[in-house]
Backbone:
């Protein structure tokens, strides 16, 4: 599946695991640190059985693994961690919602009057595909920098960016020079 930093999700199991909202949130939480089923359940306000099921799906898909065990009384607690810091989608199946990440971002955005964030901008420009791919690589680098930041503060912030082909019309090259 790749090196320790990047996991390519290309199996049907991995792709199915990633489109579930609860599993996606679990993966995001495990970016901070390894956690037990109980810790994740408490943070998400969901039953341990539900979180345990989602962890089994993620583990079966190769996206999380047990990174350590700790004996607590007669039980052994398992701490789960991600198998990679970055998960790259190898391609979604035909018919899948290819905008699910944008929809998820829209669902979780918090707008508070007077705060400087969220901040969005949208731009469109007629450029070569080669230049668009260069910008996409820079966006990936910026996203990697974002998730590598030291953990601090009380709020979780999201980062969404992309470079995409549009259906916008183009004027073409100017005849005046």
Residues:
């Amino acid at each position: 599946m790749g090196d320790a930093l990047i996991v390519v999700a290309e199996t049907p199991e991995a792709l199915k695991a990633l489109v579930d909202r609860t599993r996606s949130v679990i993966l995001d939480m495990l970016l901070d640190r390894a956690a037990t089923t109980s810790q994740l359940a408490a943070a998400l306000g969901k039953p341990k059985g539900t979180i345990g099921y989602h962890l089994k799906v993620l583990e079966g898909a190769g996206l999380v693994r047990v990174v350590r065990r700790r004996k607590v009384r007669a039980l052994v607690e398992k701490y789960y961690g991600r198998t990679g810091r970055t998960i790259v989608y190898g391609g979604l199946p035909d018919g899948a919602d290819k905008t699910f990440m944008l929809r998820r971002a829209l669902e979780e955005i918090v707008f508070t009057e007077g705060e400087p964030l969220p901040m969005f901008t949208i731009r469109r420009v007629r450029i070569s595909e080669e230049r668009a791919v260069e910008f996409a690589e820079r966006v990936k680098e910026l996203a990697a920098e974002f998730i590598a930041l030291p953990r601090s503060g009380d709020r979780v912030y999201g980062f969404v960016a992309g470079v995409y082909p549009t259906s916008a019309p183009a004027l073409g090259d100017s005849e005046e020079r």
Summary: Residues 129-147 form the longest helix (19 residues). The first strand starts at residue 6 and ends at 9. Residues 45 and 123 are 39 Å apart (CA to CA).
